[in-house]
Design goal:
The structure holds three protein chains of three kinds. Chain A is mostly helical. Chain B has 17 helices and 22 strands. In chain B, 49% of the residues are buried. Chain B is globular and about 70 Å long. Chain C has 15 helices and five strands. Chain C is globular, with a radius of gyration of 24 Å. The chains are: A mainly alpha, B alpha/beta, C mainly alpha. Chains A and C meet through helix 8, helix 9, helix 14 and helix 16 of A and helix 7, helix 13 and helix 15 of C.
């Protein structure tokens, strides 16, 4: 094994070099550079698909480059304004002292946090699955079902004070998502049916189910649109500020849940069991752990977390259930979990990053006309760089780390 | 005799390890040359270099006096070099013909396979050397000894003149070993030259014409069976005097701990692997299960340790019925298990040494209070065991996958032996270990025996069984065909039993 | 020499529990037919099945029969099957009988649902075939990749990309060049998958997911940016329906099998070519060896990496081709996310079909049938909401997967990156 004996840094230059070497090897550096490079490529993509850039090239090469750079700059500017806010506007709003103006100016930042919240839940869901060696692509469907059960509890349970109604509705959402995760988990554990296919099937079943419910039993009787009735006020998640700021309790609940997941995974015997099953099921079995039980429990919890994501949206943001109210969160969550190396802390940070990116992308669409799908493209780039760190290392000439420990192991189809 | 093959100055290193250090080797035409060394000495690496699977850092290869470049197996095959690997390179779902012709297929127009011509040729080769192989059978249906012969046919089909056999006898009974060497003699008579890699001293002395000993990546000497004996060879292999005998105190037998009654166990293909076996293991004795790999030992151990449920029969541990018990329950009753495949079944390679050391006890006091893990206690426990069992590691918190094979096995032994146990199953406990580690494991096993633990030792290494056991049960085809007292067991007798020749 | 080549003794233990479960299932089918269908119908009602798909110019009389007696007969047949299964069991043929019982049950359902009405049975079957095409093409793509040992869950993304590229390029040029571009785009994405999984040894499922995310993003992005702004870029045209001269005149099956566009015929050809190729050619033997035991192939001089690269890229071509079907072979324009999970269902079909082309096709037909049934049943006055009916293909996939996996034989080295130590 590596016996690197480091001599005492004899002068500042040596210690500087060693520091750079350590930074070079660190996986954090790779992560950071992956994000940076991804954003860069995304910007270039936007420039390449902007007409005005081509027109500028027709005038002259230099004009074209300027236009291209301008397009890229505009993109990031829109991204920044959309996700964090326009600094100029913020300053002038505070100066004016007008409460509403201030709220509007700082809204982008808070809205980014609002958008991050379901990402946290969904990312935790997928990460938990990864830890047990399961690929839960069903977060999307579990999210929907959780939203449905939460909304049912929120609309139809009458006469409860908020302090009870909110936890009960959230619990309903957790259970709904949990059952939706339990089914493919059970199928995998008992029949060996691969969870990738089954969870994807469950997604589509969930979509059809929500369509059915929203066109029928759950539809708001006061209208024709496939939307549910609004949830009762007692079930709404508390908002800290007045409109247009939508920042609500859900964010802190998500952080708390992330902390719980951390404790669960790393400080309890259950977590030890799950992690062992995920790393080496055969050794786990010999050590007395039940693979079936772990699989089923993990998928239930994972589904429940995704269900909380859905509950969060209906109880905290929309206050009702609509068709396709949260599309794409499930797939994004996969990216999050991978980026966060399946660790709750990493997931939270990645979720916040993605929340900011997504919120900013929506603004990019409004301000600069750039389709919001750029987010998926960015994600794909960032993920590719994270999954194959050698690429980043080659581009930026970083050093190989001393030891590569795989946090996540997935095993083809048959899985043994 | 002219050298048909010369390796000059072969050096090959991997990160952190110099596997071959300036090695010279000469193979004469028509000779059987043994490459002897303990596990990890560098023998397989050298042969992989010769076969083109590895590129050497430096050194040259000469065939018939001409320098050749071998950058891939294709080159080696073209030069008439063929290799039979220790783990067979056969595709189970293909037929013999398909496996033999793979890479060198006979085709008709358009790339369509011609299966008839190769099959005919295979039959010819099979008849010429009495290999008795049916070209149309599927590999997965063939017994191991026959599969090995298919591997040999692969080489002869490509008209290899230089044959390399890597640990060919690991999976054979003593009688099958004799048959193999008869085949080797006839091959050599027809002009082939053979190198075989082994760590088994007796074979080397009985069957080879010349011997080269490798230790730590270097050649330490070359000799012939006429000039050397077992002790000399062992000393060359290991670098010091090795006691090949062991001091075994007479057994101090106590009560029956494990009772196996009419046990029937199926394998994963739903075939009968264990066919109505009965035996007992008593406290203070070592019962050795001898037998060639694949006669049901693996499934027997799986049933006894709770990984599989038997289809019929009963198992009792200290009087309690464990026939369908879970592994956890069996462990809690006071049973320990050193698994056959330590990396797959015994350890979680990505987890820390400390975590691995509590793999079957983490949920109990003192390592957990209700469901909360007590990490400080886990760490203390790890430090204690590392100390007691001499595990070479810089810290208890590095992944166990970074340890050497011997140290990994010590982690498992340390874990299993640190509990109060009454029963121990040791399955191939010294496979792939260096001599020092082997000695260590043997000593600890005898220690447990002296403590009154009932030890079930399952091993394909007959020497190990003879050395350690008080009684020897021989498994063949899923049955125990004899139980022999160690005092009257001889290699020949056990060997015949292992081949299914019962003594009735 | 004492040992000869002999087969090891196998004990034929067909688990009694499986036999009983199957028997119960058959009996359940019989009971359902009896109680759900027979008991709810009046005697004297007739079922009419039209035997020509719409638009064909054959003349076959409608098949009209009395609903109740037919249902009684079907119930009886399945009852007998159930009894026999419980008593003795069909052993090796159990799966076949299961398929038959399932088929009879569906036929009973159709008879019942169409009671006192009429249903275009030929049209239904033809529709099933049409819906099976993208699934089968997706499954074939999977087969090509996975037989060499590389798991490819990016078929969905590759198909989506193929659909988009075929539309864009087809609008600018013509359908054939559009098709070619689609095929190449699939290959390009597959090359990325191959590099990530083979060279960088990224987990293959993660690499596939990345490709899917990318494909979803880029097609929607470019579609919003260009196709929606310039409508003429979203108008590539479609391949025409071409009846095959003699074969399309065969009664009943003629119009069902042989009156389609090029994609269907291409699918037939691919099924045969890939099956023959995998089992009877040198390419097939080497590819399969790399998927089963790459080390063995390596020691015999076969380039494992190159074989895998080639297989994955070919799989990408196939997926791109399949993607073009959605546009050039079907609706004639691109809509965002139009593949709607068909790539994943194709994967399920591949697993269900035991990694065989024709097996995958059967599975594809099954799913396609349920899909077609879902839309038809919405027309019939069956009291099941259409959204629920639309769930059926997905439910069916899950049920079948549960029953089949474990008994399937996937390539032994599937999903494991090859390490040249």
């Amino acid at each position: 094994m590596s016996d690197s004996e480091k001599k005492e840094p004899t002068n500042k230059k040596d210690s500087g070099k060693i520091f750079l070497e350590e930074v070079s090897k660190s996986p954090l550096t790779v992560t950071f550079l992956a994000i940076f490079t991804g954003l860069l490529l995304g910007g270039i993509l936007v420039a390449v698909t902007t007409e005005s850039v081509y027109q500028a090239f027709n005038v002259s090469f230099w004009e074209g480059i300027k236009a291209g750079a301008g397009a890229i700059w505009q993109t990031y500017e829109a991204l920044f304004y959309g996700s964090v806010g326009n600094p100029a506007k913020i300053v002038s709003a505070f100066r004016s002292g007008n409460a509403e103006e201030i709220r509007r100016a700082v809204n982008p930042f808070f809205d980014s946090l609002v958008v991050s919240t379901p990402y946290i839940f969904a990312g935790l869901a997928v990460a938990l699955g990864f830890r047990v060696g399961l690929f839960n692509i069903g977060a999307e469907g579990q999210l929907f079902i959780g939203a449905i059960t939460a909304v049912i509890a929120a609309i139809f349970l009458k006469g409860l004070p908020a302090i009870i109604h909110v936890p009960v509705s959230l619990l309903a959402g957790f259970l709904g998502g949990g059952i939706w995760g339990f089914i493919p988990g059970w199928l995998k554990a008992v029949t060996g049916g691969h969870e990738v296919i089954n969870t994807i099937m469950m997604n589509y079943i969930a979509f059809r189910l929500s369509e059915f419910l929203l066109r029928g039993p759950l539809k708001n009787p006061d209208g024709f649109a496939p939307v549910s009735a609004p949830v009762q006020e007692s079930a709404e998640l508390f908002r800290f500020f007045k409109p247009p700021i939508r920042f609500h309790m859900g964010f802190f609940i998500a952080l708390f849940v992330a902390f719980l997941v951390y404790l669960f995974l790393f400080k309890t015997t259950w977590g030890f069991t799950l992690r062992t099953v995920g790393s080496n099921p055969r050794a786990a079995k010999y050590a007395g752990m039940s693979i079936v039980q772990s699989t089923v429990v993990a998928m239930f919890l994972s589904g429940g977390l995704a269900g909380l994501a859905g509950s969060n949206e209906v109880l905290g943001v929309n206050h009702n259930l609509a068709l396709a109210f949260a599309s794409g969160y499930g797939f994004d969550a996969i990216a999050l979990a991978l980026l966060g190396k399946s660790h709750p802390a990493g997931v939270v940070l990645s979720a916040i990053l993605f929340g900011f990116l997504r919120n900013g992308a929506i603004q990019m669409q409004v301000l600069a006309g750039i389709p919001v799908d750029i987010i998926s493209i960015l994600q794909a780039f960032i993920l590719a760089f994270i999954a194959a760190p050698a690429i980043i290392r080659t581009i930026y000439r970083l050093k190989e780390p001393d030891m590569d420990i795989e946090a996540v192991t997935l095993r083809g189809w048959g899985g043994n | 005799m002219k050298p048909i093959l010369e390796l000059k100055g072969i050096t090959k290193s991997f990160p952190g390890v110099l596997a071959n250090d300036n090695i010279n080797l000469t193979l004469n035409k028509g000779e059987i040359h043994a490459l002897l060394g303990e596990n990890g000495a560098g023998k397989s690496t050298l042969m992989n270099v010769l076969y083109g699977l590895y590129a050497p850092d430096s050194g040259d290869i000469y065939v018939n006096g001409n320098k050749i470049e071998v950058t891939s197996p294709r080159d080696a095959i073209a030069q008439g070099i063929g290799m039979v690997h220790q783990h067979f390179m056969l595709v189970p779902v293909f037929t013999v013909t398909e496996n033999v012709m793979l890479g060198d297929e006979t085709t008709r127009a358009g790339g369509f396979l011609d299966r008839k011509t190769p099959a005919k040729r295979i039959l010819e080769i099979s008849d010429e050397f009495h290999l008795e192989v049916d070209p149309n059978s599927y590999i997965r249906d063939l017994p191991v000894g026959v599969q090995q012969r298919v591997e040999i046919i692969k080489l002869l089909y490509r008209e290899a003149d230089i044959l390399i056999l890597d640990e060919p006898t690991a999976v054979l009974t003593p009688q099958e070993v004799d048959e193999l060497f008869t085949i080797m003699r006839s091959l050599v008579k027809s002009g082939k030259s053979i190198i075989f890699i082994t760590h088994k001293l007796r074979e080397v002395l009985t069957f080879s014409d010349r011997i080269t000993v490798i230790r730590g990546g270097k050649v330490v000497g070359s000799t012939t069976p006429a000039e050397a004996d077992q002790n000399q060879l062992a000393a060359m292999m290991v670098g010091r005097e090795v006691s090949l005998e062991v001091d075994k105190a007479p057994p101090h037998i106590q009560d029956t701990i494990l009772e196996v009654e009419d046990l029937v166990v199926l394998d994963h293909m739903r075939n009968i692997a264990v066919n109505q076996i009965s035996f007992q293991v008593r406290g203070g004795e070592i019962l050795g299960i001898a037998g060639v790999q694949g006669n049901g030992q693996t499934e027997l151990v799986q049933a006894i340790t709770g990984l599989t449920h038997p289809t019929a029969g009963k198992l009792h541990l200290m009087g309690q019925d464990i026939t369908n018990a879970s592994p956890r329950k069996i462990t809690e009753l006071g049973s320990a298990h050193i698994p056959e495949d330590r990396q797959r079944d015994g350890l979680v390679l990505t987890a820390t040494i400390a975590d691995n050391l509590v793999l079957n006890t983490y949920y109990k006091k003192p390592f957990a209070r209700s469901v909360i893990l007590q990490e400080d206690k886990v760490l203390k426990n790890a430090e204690k065991i590392i100390d007691n069992f001499d595990v070479r590691t810089p810290s208890p918190l590095i992944p166990v996958g970074s340890l050497s094979g011997g140290n990994q096995q010590k982690v498992i032994v340390g874990r299993e032996f640190s509990r109060p146990i009454k029963f121990l199953v040791a399955s191939q406990p010294t496979r792939g270990l260096d001599v020092g580690s082997i000695e260590y494991i043997h000593e600890r096993l005898l220690e447990k025996r002296a403590d009154g633990v009932a030890v079930l030792l399952v091993s394909t290494e007959l020497e190990e069984i003879l050395k350690l056991s008080d009684r020897i049960a021989v498994m063949f085809n899923g049955e125990i065909i004899a139980v022999v007292d160690a005092k009257v067991a001889t290699k020949e007798r056990i060997g015949l039993l292992m081949a299914g020749v019962s003594e009735a | 020499m004492t040992t000869k080549t002999e087969t090891l003794t196998k004990s034929e233990i067909f688990s009694p529990s499986r036999r009983i479960t199957m028997g119960v299932i058959f009996l359940l089918a019989s009971a359902l037919i009896w109680f759900l269908f027979v008991q709810t119908l009046e005697p004297g009602i007739q079922t009419t099945f039209k035997m020509i798909p719409g638009g064909a110019d054959q003349v076959i009389p409608d098949w009209i029969f009395s609903s109740l007696p037919m249902l009684r007969v079907l119930s009886g047949i399945t009852l007998v099957a159930g009894g026999y299964q419980l008593a003795r069991g069909f052993r090796k043929r159990t799966n076949l009988v299961l398929g038959l019982v399932g088929g009879l049950f569906i036929f009973a359902f159709l008879t019942w649902a169409t009671a006192d009405g009429s249903l275009n049975l030929a049209g239904l079957i033809r529709s099933a075939l049409v819906k099976a095409v993208p699934l089968t093409l997706g499954a074939l793509s999977g087969v090509l990749c996975e037989r060499s040992g590389v798991v490819n869950i990016a078929i969905e993304g590759m198909m989506l990309t193929g659909a988009f590229v075929s539309t864009l390029v087809g609008s600018l040029t013509n359908i054939w060049i559009g098709l070619l571009a689609a095929v190449l785009s699939g290959g390009l994405l597959a090359a990325v998958l191959a590099v990530l999984s083979i060279k960088y040894k990224t987990d293959q499922i993660i690499a596939g997911t990345i490709i899917n995310i990318f494909a979803t993003g880029i097609t929607s992005f470019l579609s919003a940016r260009f196709l929606q702004v310039y409508q003429n870029l979203n108008d590539p045209g479609r391949f025409p329906t071409i009846p095959i001269p003699v074969l399309s005149k065969i009664p009943f099956i003629g119009p069902i099998l042989f009156e389609h566009n090029m994609f269907v015929y291409a699918m037939y050809i691919f099924l045969i070519v890939i099956t023959v190729g995998l089992n009877y050619t040198r390419w097939g033997l080497r590819t399969r060896s790399v998927g089963e035991h790459p080390k063995a192939a390596d020691t015999l001089g076969i380039n494992v990496f190159r074989t895998r690269y080639l297989s994955v890229i070919m799989g990408g071509f196939m997926a791109g081709f399949g993607g073009a079907y959605f546009t050039l072979g079907s609706v004639g324009r691109f809509d965002e996310l139009m593949t709607a999970g068909r790539g994943f269902i194709g994967l399920a079909a591949m697993i269900f079909g035991n990694w065989n082309p024709f097996g995958s096709f059967s599975a594809g037909l099954l799913f396609g049938f349920f899909d077609a049934l879902a839309s038809k049943v919405a027309i019939l006055k069956v009291p099941i909401p259409s959204e629920i009916m639309l769930m059926f293909p997905y439910l069916a996939t899950m049920v079948i997967l549960a029953g089949v996996v474990g008994r399937s034989q996937m390539p032994a080295a599937d999903g494991q990156p090859y390490e040249k130590e």
